[in-house]
Amino acid sequence: MKLWFRKHTDELCSWSVVLKELVRACQLLGHEVICTNEPPKFSYNWIEIWWGAPQDWEWYSGFVKARVGISLSESDQILKSGQPKAIANLRRCNHLFVPTEFSRRAFNEMPIDVPISLWPLGIDPDVFRYTHRDFDANPFRFLCLGVTQFRKGSWLETEAFIRAFSQGEPVHLTIASHRESQMYLSLKHEYQWDIRISFICREYENPTIHYDGAHVLVSPHLSEGWGLHITEAMALGIPCIISRCSAPRDYFRPDCGWWIEMSDHYVPVSGCLVDTPGFWRLPSMQDLADKMRYSYEHQDECEAAAAAAAKYAENHLTWVHGAQIGLKILGEL
Fold first, then answer.
1. Do residues 259 and 183 touch, judged by C-beta distance below 8 A?
2. Tens digit of pLDDT for each residue in 19-28?
3. Closest Cα partner for 217 from 190, 186, 238, 196?
4. What pTM, to 2 d.p., does this model score?
5. How distant, in Å, are the alpha carbons of 47, 58, 143, 329 from that of 67?
6. Which of 63, 126, 243, 252 has the greatest CB tally within 10 Å of its CB?
7. CA dist list (Å): 51 to 18, 55, 119
């Protein structure tokens, strides 16, 4: 197939990283792929594919073989101000792909009559390869990765760490953010007294360096559209402590770590995603603290979870695996 991928930004961010991997996976599977906003010659032979938020798409006005969208959502609805354009763009799709069942919910109830199928995201097995870790090493290191913000539950991980461990125990927590968000700066100021907690905010050319030395990844998110950091950690052989909600429900397994159970408290989505209706359920801080404590005290189980996570990621969660699923449907279309 001739696949014409379109993009709405050249900025280095999760959107552009995913697009690069989608393109590469399709190329590895033998398809002719271009990634540009300039229309290809004889465009009627090409399938136009937009990745990203539907309100950012700008469909080509000429003839194409088919129009396909790939998108996700971190809530049940998209922002109010962007809905008219998003709906108009989605209605022009011949097919819409989403990475998880959680994302499908946001589009199922929109006024569109477009087939919706799954196209999972993934990891690059050549970059994120299983590495044996010494789970008996001191200190025992927890890692929280991603932009420090409300949606990621970033404030929960620091407080749960304080609850789980007393001063003097050989444990450490690293908060790694891709930018100095307001919550990052606030938490860094609030917990500067605790030498067991470190804050890192910088970009690396090596995408695996944030994971170096980590024993357990913690993600007390309120919502995830996919969670690249979770699948990357799994592929590297890092057991995870993950909120039992949203996208990871599609791919995370109990033998790869532990679920954080959800509390009975809810918060408005607009507290993080401005102009977006709906609510998110909060994960239980106490259960998070208990799971962090449990992983520290059961390092043999951590080692078993590490091996299981790496094997599952390699066999089921690569970009090529996801592309095979999506392109099979696209070929039938």
1. no
2. 999 999 999 9
3. 238
4. 0.95
5. 6, 11, 40, 14
6. 243
7. 9, 11, 11
